[in-house]
Specification:
alpha+beta, 434 Repressor (Amino-terminal Domain), Umud Fragment, subunit A, 9-stranded mixed β-sheet, 10 helices, 35% helix
């Protein structure tokens, strides 16, 4: 049980002393100290009090070692994004930080894609990925960048670098928006999602390129979801140009309209 270390960590993140927190919870400092030092065990009523104060589920407080979570994951929990409160399972993400303890953006290039499917939860594997920072992204969220492979998301070019924000709760997937999704069968895919998790426990994924058919992915097969933030590419997307025949047709119509206007103008002048 991780209750003792978790409440100590959460208390310090709120910059509260034991005296201050005990007063807020209508308790004694010695009692709180006993919980944090694991010399006393809380009852169910006490667990509920801490759960309401920190806005974190009892299951999370006692079952999950919050010290292993990244700062961005802790921030999500503290903002009420606790999947235990919604009947899910907490997804712990392997991550890296820089010398300032800021979250890195790990880079998963085309060669690393296959290995990522098996190593996404392995801290040693993630620690070997190249990392970088983007100063315009929030330090309170977790991002990762993946290299595209293929033309299914044209006009976003093949080989483009797509950055996503880690999504803890898949119920927050919005139909019509783009996501980077990891499954053990499909690997890493970048698609537009239709969220039918509540009714059918699955996502339907669509490509921007109409040459590719949509397909379903069951939530049981999904390992990670990253919400699309932006992409970087050295290639300019192909412009959507009209066909030559369409150009000629429009030009012909313009000429006919001009001739009709001139004819009507001449007839009006003769009548006058």
């Amino acid at each position: 049980m991780y209750f003792h270390s978790n409440i100590k960590l959460l208390r310090k993140r709120r910059n509260k002393t034991q005296d201050e927190l005990a007063l807020l919870l209508n308790s004694k400092r010695s009692t709180l100290s006993g919980y944090e030092n694991k010399v006393a065990e809380p009852g169910i009523d006490t667990l509920l009090i801490f759960s309401r104060y920190f806005n974190i589920a009892v299951d999370t407080l006692i079952k999950i070692n919050l010290e292993k979570l990244t700062d961005s994951q802790l921030h999500q929990l503290e903002n009420g994004d606790d999947v235990y409160l919604q009947g899910g399972n907490l997804r712990i993400l392997a991550s890296t930080v820089n010398e300032k303890n800021d979250e890195n953006i790990e880079l998963v290039n085309e060669k690393a894609r296959a290995g990522y499917t098996n190593g996404f939860a392995d801290p040693e594997y993630i620690n070997e990925l190249p990392v970088f920072q983007l100063p315009f992204l929030s330090k309170e969220r977790k991002y990762r960048t993946f290299q595209l492979n293929g033309d299914s998301m044209l006009p976003i070019p093949n080989k483009a670098w797509v950055t996503g924000e880690f999504l803890l709760d898949w119920n927050h997937i919005k139909t019509g928006e783009a996501y980077i999704i990891l499954t053990l069968d499909e690997g890493i895919v970048f698609k537009i999602a239709e969220n039918i998790i509540k009714d059918e426990s699955k996502l339907t994924l669509y490509s921007l390129n109409p040459m590719y058919d949509p397909f379903d992915v069951r939530t049981a097969d999904i390992k990670e979801v990253w919400k699309f933030v932006h992409f970087i590419s050295q290639d300019i997307p192909e412009p959507v140009l009209p066909e030559n025949e369409l150009v000629r047709t429009v030009a012909g119509l313009k000429k006919e309209v001009h001739e009709i206007k001139n004819k009507l103008s001449s007839e009006t002048e003769r009548k006058n």
